[in-house]
Amino acid sequence: MPELPEVETIKRSLEKKLLGTVITEVKIYLPKVIRLQTQNAFIQQIAGKKIIGLGRRGKYLLIHLSENLTLVIHLRMTGRLVYTPPCTPEKHTHAVFVLDSGFELHFNDTRQFGKIILSPSNELDAVPGLKDLGIEPLDENFDKNVFRRDLRRRRAKIKSLLLDQTFIAGLGNIYVDEALHRARINPQRIAASLKPREVTNLYHAIRKVLREGIKNRGTTFRDYVDGDGRMGNYQGLLRVYSREGQPCLNCETEIKRMKLSGRSSYFCPRCQKAK
Predict the structure, then answer these.
(1) pLDDT digit string, tens, across residues 137-166
(2) What's the whole-model pTM score?
(3) Catalytic residues
(4) CA angle, 15 as apex, 10 and 20 as ends, to 5°?
(5) CB neighbour list of residue 195: distance below 8 Å, 6 or more residues apart
């Protein structure tokens, strides 16, 4: 699933291309990707609107339109949003936004879990999925002292807690594993058990791996591409994620994998000792 760095990369790759363009036509090939309203109502509302800005909230891409409307797009597991010259839609293309620039924006999704919502821009806080998101980890309001206070109140395992989008928005399996390894914290540690020094290390590790992910245009293993259709580069810099059986880059101990809350977690048993 595209995480914060991937969605931010998509936003940045599309921003200059889309700003100021007008959506002249919308073609929907899979009506269920449109949520909260009918396909026809969606098309009628969006046709003729100008794209005036792009944003991101957690793993959601926001395309702000004229007349107080915003497209809220969640790519889920396999979604892609690609800017392209007019072409025959691929097999799994579910929506096409035709632009007055002569280009098109294609939304395709092999697994069909992605969704598109059209909302009044001043009512985004009420949109399902958006309304309950936690703090943005790269925001200046993400304060390490508040982070320490919030962790002290939680009895959940730290890996599971960091994946909780209502706690921190945008983190997923890849970047949580990488941040925990940088901070030398075992994924099974109870959040409240972390010492102040460990919380500080984790705080900085989260921000560092996210910034590195953005700098390297995200992580591609299979489906993710940016708005230009280009793969990310961060997969070559990962220290633990998907590296089971390979040596830890810190200590050369073999990287292990375990199941935690139904998900694979990769860690170094020496650098990230269970306590």
Answers:
(1) 999 999 999 999 999 999 999 999 999 999
(2) 0.96
(3) 2-3, 59, 263
(4) 145
(5) none
Beta-carbon contacts of 265 under 8 Å, excluding residues fewer than 6 positions away, are 159, 173, 177, 187, 257, 258, 259
Per the CB < 8 A criterion, the answer to whether 241 and 234 are in contact is no
Classify residue 234 as exposed, middle or buried by CB count within 10 Å of its CB (0-12, 13-18, 19+). Answer: buried
How are strands ordered across the β-sheet holding 60-65? Answer: 34-35, 115-120, 69-74, 60-65, 51-57
- In the chain the domains, ranked by start, together with CATH numbers, are 4-126 (3.20.190.10), 144-267 (1.10.8.50)
How far is the C-alpha of 36 from the C-alpha of 44, rounded, in Å? 14
Cα–Cα nearest to 254, from 272, 237, 236: 272
With a CB cutoff of 8 Å and minimum separation 6, the contacts of 169 are 4, 57, 58, 59, 133, 134, 135, 136, 137
- Spatial distance between the Cα atoms of 19 and 35, rounded to a whole number of angstroms: 24
SS3 152: helix
Token pair in block for residue 109: 């999704």
